[in-house]
Design brief:
278 residues; alpha+beta; Jelly Rolls; Arc Repressor Mutant, subunit A; 2 domains; seven-stranded antiparallel sheet; four-stranded antiparallel sheet; 11 strands; globular
């Protein structure tokens, strides 16, 4: 962790939270060196934990999930789980929240399941926390309602930006697949060929495809599409001046019609429909 990050790090419980509100902010751990946690019965609140640096493991539904920079975990209330760092330091942003309409709101935003999510814009959580700290310092009236409003905006922004992915323990413990996964994340907006990937890990293309699908339960192409569509969701909402064609190109799709077909298959809406809804 850099000196600036150490200076910014803090933990805060919000005693002004109001469980009677639709959304209630319960706590923030910011640039936090995450300690091991084991909760066999879960907790009565919801949690968004975003990895900033290092690597950790989360055990959820009897599956071990590797979480590293660029990914986050959504943990819903009363779901048994545990997590711990696997590097010297595992630095996270951790937002805890609850509320009478929490489950309904999350489901409405498409965040229906606990699990690991690909994050496109790593600054969304940081921006939210900084906004909350400003409100804390002003100590104005009705802080619980202000926090509730800010929390909803944060979850709304986050929902545009994330895409749930499926990563099994054997896959992320396999060095070869970690290399391929990272390459796809780093080069999502460029042409990606099996020849390049096979050369990268020194394997035959056929064997690499078989290995990837066995552990990831999806093909390399399908995994790349999920990463690309996660970015497309963000661009559609945050860059309204760009056309669907331009966004498709930014996300690595040469054909607009194919981009629209993949987007609708994964999200359930066309890019234009998704943009109008958000």
């Amino acid at each position: 962790m850099s000196k600036n990050e150490r200076d910014e790090a803090f933990a805060e419980d919000f005693i002004s939270s109001n469980p009677g509100l639709p959304l209630s902010l319960d706590g923030i751990l910011f640039h936090y060196s995450q300690e091991p946690v084991k909760r066999p019965n879960g907790v009565p609140f919801y949690q968004w934990m975003q990895c900033i640096s290092g690597t950790g493991e989360v055990i959820l539904d009897d599956q071990k999930i590797i979480v590293r920079e660029g990914r986050g975990i959504l943990l819903k209330a009363h779901i048994p789980h545990s997590y711990y760092g696997t590097t010297d330091q595992w630095i996270t942003h951790n937002i805890s929240f609850s509320g009478s309409a929490c489950e309904q709101i999350l489901n409405g935003l498409g965040m229906k399941q606990s699990g690991v999510y690909q994050v496109t814009n790593l600054d969304i959580t940081k921006k939210f926390v900084k906004g909350i700290t400003i409100h804390q310092k002003t100590k104005g009236p009705c802080l619980d309602r202000i926090y509730s409003k800010e929390l909803y905006t944060f979850l709304l922004d986050l929902s545009y930006d994330i895409q749930r992915i499926h990563i099994s323990e054997p896959a992320m413990e396999n060095k070869i697949l970690r290399i391929v996964d990272q390459y796809l994340i780093d080069h999502f907006n460029q042409p990606v060929s099996l020849d390049i990937l096979a050369e990268l890990v020194d394997l035959r293309k056929e064997y690499l495809c078989t290995l990837f699908k066995k552990h990831m339960q999806q093909t390399i192409s399908q995994h790349l599409q999920i990463i690309r569509i996660a970015h497309a969701k963000y661009y559609l909402v945050h860059y309204p001046e760009k056309t669907v064609k331009e966004i498709g190109v930014l996300c690595g799709f040469e054909s607009t019609s194919y981009f629209c077909k993949v987007f609708k298959k994964i999200i359930g809406y066309s890019p234009d429909e998704y943009r109008r809804l958000h």
